[in-house]
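Hi Y.,

Following your request, here is the sequence exactly as I used it, all 102 residues.
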Amino acid sequence: MENELINEEEEIDGLNHHEDDKWHYWVWKCECSDSRMRPNGRAITSGCGHINVRKSQKALVASGNFQDKCRNCGRGRRLNGGNTSIFVSKVDADRYVRRLSQ
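Below is the corresponding structure, written out as tokens. Let me know if you'd prefer a different format.
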């Protein structure tokens, strides 16, 4: 009974932290990692430097099986453990983004 009241209060306040446990937050910067890469013969474009955050329920593995596009310039990037910082809470991810922005 007491647990139900606590859960109802958390949901009313919008602070249901149990739901946040399944999400991963990936922080990555839009930049050119390999200057030799020339997709479809086009000239290479450098990244805009924008810091992006992606939210997913899937775990990021070292093989780089995910791609994301920059929210600022639209440039695509393969995400892997080398170019992405992974956080389990949005608060930590936002704190890291603010620190990188300074």
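The longest helix spans residues 2-13.

Thanks again,
Q.
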